[in-house]
């Protein structure tokens, strides 16, 4: 601790992202990136922007075009859309603008590990709600929160999806508090809660271009919600950084939303791969939680998760392992290409058999 | 005010950036952008990154390569460099990580208008130190601050530079508090305080690629300082957003730093234009403050500033006007190309003569 650090810097417990190894020949299944490149139309749109001399000019601080495009995609208005530098930044603004110190919020005990990080840095008390034994959310324990609710759907790293009628019960029992549904993986699942926005003014849906749109490297995330919630996020952005999304990211993200054919194609492919990978793992003695994401969360009946993680790492296959109860014997594996997953299965066979 | 907003959202007084008009045929001299395009090597580096399929992968959260490049440019180590999404984000992290509620900081009364915005949102008390009558900083009134000091050098919107020996006096009289020198415009001035970093562990220098490197559209800023100060900023970033700078911005910014020849050429050109524009304005009855930036701050002996701003706007020339005492009769004009500035001078002649 430095004498120059603020109290905020001292109490912070920073998030540790999955490794980004520069090493070649690695099979990278540790940060839930898309194994396929972004739509060729994204590259084309960025090329076109590069050929203007506009890079010398600030981007649009209001991002109207991209917000209109995203809104139209969900049947919503621009005023229902907030755009930020990845969904992590959107979540940070949501913690700042919609949750309050002294009013405890609730999130699942096993969930995206950035939530407690935001809560600590912005001094927001929180209650961690244990999952049910089957790792589903214990819905009623989110009712009547003091300060609000946040959970991913599907949840991470469990990969389990909560149906919309259950989400509606949480919304109905938190009428005066904000409920944030963090849908980073929802394009690999049944349905988005975006359809509930006109019905519930306390619902904020957060999404990202990093997973299903294959644009983790471009840093674009967004939130959908009632006009008043969006205004609250805009107030935070404009008190922090007027232009968090650059010119290339703005045009690239717009092109990604517009190319629905490509998006559907790669999403379908990932879901197909997920299906056979799940079956293969099961046949090798793994229990695989029912995934509606682009990863699987799994445990082997005898082989310890941490040892498997290490052994795969030595074979240049990176997956994610969390040394946290009660998931300390699970591993999280991103769905890669068919070829990558075949190599993974082969490596696992070599290790455990 | 929405019932869903936090106290932070309610007390926020968001920054209002200069207009980004989409309109064609406008001469845009209102946000201090560079009139020249970025180095061709920046475009080339972004093209190369685009031709990989890496956009699907997260960028480096530690940004080692860019930090090493920037460090080398200033004779510093990677550990002395922090990179963020524009210098506004860097400043936001600095307010969060290095200043504290209850310990008033000091900044000039006439200065970058984002400082009070950060202070309000993060609940940091502040004292605004009046400028001297000639608009220079009243150095001794920054001595022995309770919570720290921040000022731009050159100051904005006055354009006036404070020599390094005066900055050293402020540093020496604030040994246990952080002094932030915000050098957005320093490449158009005498010298950076970066050379003082090894001498003063309480000095943080903040810079941007948006002005002299012609990359406002790419969103890259950085801070230079003692290892401990940089660690404090990294703690804030990693409690907020692991990857605020995207893959294209990382390679573009690196190429911009490396192409020193191009950088020197456009910077020299802007300074030359500033010289003749100053003389022209003086010959038309303007008082022009001695600028060491890529803009001039000026007042006419008889013609009111606000009327001049409006009249130029009607002629499709955008400049910046702040309706704030004691600068309510000044206008800020970004230095554009020679051709743009000739048109500006012609328009001013038409208006005031």
What is the strand and helix layout of this fold?
Two copies of one chain form a homodimer.
Chain A: H1 7-11, E1 27-28, H2 40-51, H3 64-73, E2 81-84, H4 86-98, E3 105-108, H5 115-121, E4 126-129, E5 149-152, H6 164-172, E6 179-182, E7 203-208, E8 221-225, H7 227-237, H8 247-258, H9 260-283, E9 286-288, E10 295-300, H10 305-314, E11 317-318, E12 331-334, H11 338-352
Parallel strand pairs in A: 1-11, 3-4, 5-6, 6-7
Antiparallel strand pairs in A: 2-8, 7-8, 9-10, 10-12
Helix pairs in contact in A: 2-8, 3-8, 4-7, 9-11
Oligomer class: homodimer
The fold-level CATH name of the largest domain in chain A is Aspartate Aminotransferase, domain 2
Largest sheet of chain A: 5 strands, mixed
Chain pair sharing the greatest interface: A-B, 85 and 85 residues
Tell me the span between the first and last alpha carbons of chain A.
47 Å
CATH superfamily of the largest domain in chain A: Type I PLP-dependent aspartate aminotransferase-like (Major domain)
Strand order of the largest sheet of chain A: 2-8-7-6-5
Instruction: Write the CATH architecture name of the largest domain in chain A.
Output: 3-Layer(aba) Sandwich
Number of strands of chain A: 12
Residue share in helix of chain A: 25-40%
Strand content of chain A: 5-15%
Domain unit count of chain A: 2
Q: Report the top-level CATH class of the largest domain in chain A.
A: Alpha Beta
């Amino acid at each position: 601790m430095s004498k120059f650090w603020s109290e905020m810097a001292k109490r912070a417990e920073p998030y540790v992202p999955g490794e980004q190894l520069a090493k070649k020949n690695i099979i990278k299944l540790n940060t839930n990136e898309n194994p396929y490149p972004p739509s060729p139309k994204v590259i084309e749109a960025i090329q076109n922007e590069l050929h203007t001399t506009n890079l010398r000019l600030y981007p649009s601080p209001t991002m109207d075009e991209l917000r209109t495009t995203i809104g139209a995609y969900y049947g919503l208005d621009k005023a229902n859309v907030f755009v930020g530098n990845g969904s992590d930044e959107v979540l940070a603004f949501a913690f700042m603008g919609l949750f309050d110190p002294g009013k405890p919020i609730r999130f699942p005990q096993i969930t995206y590990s950035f939530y407690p990080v935001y809560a600590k840095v912005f001094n927001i008390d929180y209650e961690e709600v244990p999952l049910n034994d089957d790792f589903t959310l214990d819905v009623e324990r989110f009712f009547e929160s003091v300060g609000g609710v946040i959970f991913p759907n599907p949840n991470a790293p469990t990969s389990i999806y909560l149906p919309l009628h259950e989400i509606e019960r949480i919304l109905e029992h938190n009428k005066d508090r904000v409920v944030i549904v963090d849908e980073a993986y929802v394009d690999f699942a049944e349905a988005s809660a975006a359809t509930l926005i006109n019905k519930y003014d306390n619902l904020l849906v957060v999404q990202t271009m990093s997973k299903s749109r294959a644009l983790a490297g471009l840093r674009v995330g967004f939130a959908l919600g009632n006009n008043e919630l969006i205004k609250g996020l805009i107030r935070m952005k404009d008190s922090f950084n007027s232009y968090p999304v650059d010119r290339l990211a703005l045009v690239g993200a717009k092109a990604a939303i517009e190319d629905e054919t490509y998006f559907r194609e790669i999403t379908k492919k990932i879901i197909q791969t997920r299906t056979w990978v799940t079956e293969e793992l099961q046949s090798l003695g793994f229990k695989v939680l029912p995934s509606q994401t682009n990863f699987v969360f799994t445990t082997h009946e005898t082989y310890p998760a941490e040892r498997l993680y290490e052994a795969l790492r030595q074979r240049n296959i990176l997956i994610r392992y969390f040394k946290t109860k009660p998931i300390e014997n699970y591993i999280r594996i991103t769905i890669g290409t068919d070829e990558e997953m075949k190599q993974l299965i082969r490596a696992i066979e070599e290790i455990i058999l």
